């Protein structure tokens, strides 16, 4: 029985990859003003905004429920517009997952850009669902931010 998994979703975006990377890494609270119905804030608990080793806490609404997640920035790659977040506490863990990692990066695709989200996780038991609802949520966040940046 497999308890570890990986979900990967790709989304064509019109915005530049460096803009998305900068927003997620350095200006996450700007996202709260763009999509206040989905994201309410992002606080730095330890370290510096966007720096590897920093601990951040996200407040958001997913599927009509207010949630909170605490993460450590594990890796940053400016060239590939990549950020790796390791969830250490909150609604993505608890009774569902033993570990949960969120990876975002942007790749060129023809004349455009491709936003790629990867979720790596270990379920606590076989009956835990795959995190498809959370993947749908972050894809919608990406779509909304991309639309806002192209207004």
From TrEMBL:
Record's protein name: Bet v I/Major latex protein domain-containing protein
Organism of provenance: Centaurea solstitialis (yellow star-thistle)
Record SUPFAM superfamilies: Bet v1-like
Domain Bet v I/Major latex protein: 2-151
GO annotation, biological process: defense response
Organism lineage string: Eukaryota, Viridiplantae, Streptophyta, Embryophyta, Tracheophyta
InterPro entries from the UniProt entry: Bet_v_I/MLP, MLP-like_ligand-binding, START-like_dom_sf
A Pfam family reported for this protein in Swiss-Prot or TrEMBL: Bet_v_1
